[in-house]
Amino acid sequence: MTGAGAGAGVGAGAGARLRAVFCDVGGPIYDDENFVAAVLTALDELRAADGLGPADRGAFRVLYDRSRAAQGVSLRGALAEEFLGSASRRGELHERTREHWFHPPGTLYDDVLPFFRSLREVAESLGSPVAVGVLANQEAPVVEALERDGVAPYIDVWGVSAIVGYEKPSPELFRWALDAAGVQPHEAVHIGNRLDTDVRPAAALGLGTVWVLRGEAPDEPTAEQLAEPDIAVPGLEGLAPRLESLVASRGAA
Ligand SMILES: [Mg+2]
């Protein structure tokens, strides 16, 4: 794999080198149930202010699973309509959710630190730097959680929406991260667990894409959905060594 660099003789479209890896946070790094807990607390508070009881958990899961399956439906709008009486209250729900959204100790996936260690080994074997970034719609305290859990030392680029001021799926957050890493889109890979906010916007800009099938990803993705990313994986185990060839094969295409 490391022989795929300059002069490897794979033709005029010789593959690009891997120079940056960006990673979503909710799903790939932390359990999306942290977000679910925040939304449910927010719904319960807003309903209590209206004199209503807690949101029905079963009904919540139906809407949540429908949103996961579709990979493009506004979950907030559907939740606001179902539990707050109007989809127009989605902004209110969003703001209240932000106040409760944390990543408690113990919610980092077990394969995260091995993945970033492995990625560092890949960069060393390449003999050229690979910038590593988070690229996520998250609140600022996520940085403290990543420091607490030992992830921060691996991160060069902090593409956190609440800090940078751009949100996925807007291309601005991706462009900001590419600029911060000093790389071109075809030299970078984005890893995320949603098609609508990760895979599609990243692919549209020309980044390689990895779809991680956990959290907000569907339990049973369709063939059409699985065809959208360059690769789909159940988790981060074994992923790092595949990223260089992913970029090289796309660059040669
Ligand atoms: Mg995510």
UniProtKB/TrEMBL annotation:
Gene3D superfamilies: HAD superfamily/HAD-like. The keyword Thylakoid does not apply. Pfam families: Hydrolase. Keywords: Hydrolase, Magnesium. It comes from Herbiconiux moechotypicola. It comes from the Bacteria. Coiled coil: none annotated. This is HAD family hydrolase.
